[in-house]
């Protein structure tokens, strides 16, 4: 029986909990939504970096015609970068056949801390069904890691985890859910409309204050993209 667990923030990642397991990293507001969207729109690969400095150093070594710089700090676009952390900016005409060098406050930090996992998949509300299906196909113990916000629990990432678990259960598979995974599923089933729950989240308030209503609307759409990205060999591409 496949066991499913949840880790509630990047700060709570422990090697023993994820070692050799399949991990799904979620930062739905907005890093993983960006990654899923960019790759769906023809981006060749997303290369995550922990710091702005590392991102710029890597950019200096690549032909400028082949890449874009994307990301944020504290939800705001980084000076000198091409794109922010809004998935709506990563359109096909912008990202097709390009590489995106990417750094964010919470998402890329979570990816870096997940390095001990056997596999690292990228999840969001917008590709949750595809992620659930892939986890069932892989038939291995899975840990869903919520990026959280500055090391703290995020309601938005948690309900997204619940959605993925709920979709796994739809396939009729018997899962061994930890208490925190069971609770995520219960919360999702009690808030199928999503927005009434998510709007109570701290990061939702931050995004509203920055007038990112369109991003909020997009990132809370359910399963509008049917791909599963995988982080492997220091880059993220579509898992075939």
From TrEMBL:
Record's keyword annotation contains Metal-binding: no
InterPro entries in alphabetical order: ComB-like (IPR005238), ComB-like_sf (IPR036702)
Molecular function in Gene Ontology: 2-phosphosulfolactate phosphatase activity; magnesium ion binding; sulfopyruvate decarboxylase activity
Record's keyword annotation contains ATP-binding: no
Catalytic activity, reaction form: (2R)-O-phospho-3-sulfolactate + H2O = (2R)-3-sulfolactate + phosphate
Signal peptide location: none
Coiled-coil positions: none
EC numbers for this chain: 3.1.3.71
Cofactor section: Mg(2+)
Record keywords: Hydrolase, Magnesium
Stored PANTHER family: 2-PHOSPHOSULFOLACTATE PHOSPHATASE-RELATED
Assigned protein family: Belongs to the ComB family.
Full protein name: Probable 2-phosphosulfolactate phosphatase
Species the sequence originates in: Clostridium saccharoperbutylacetonicum N1-4(HMT)
Gene this chain is encoded by: comB
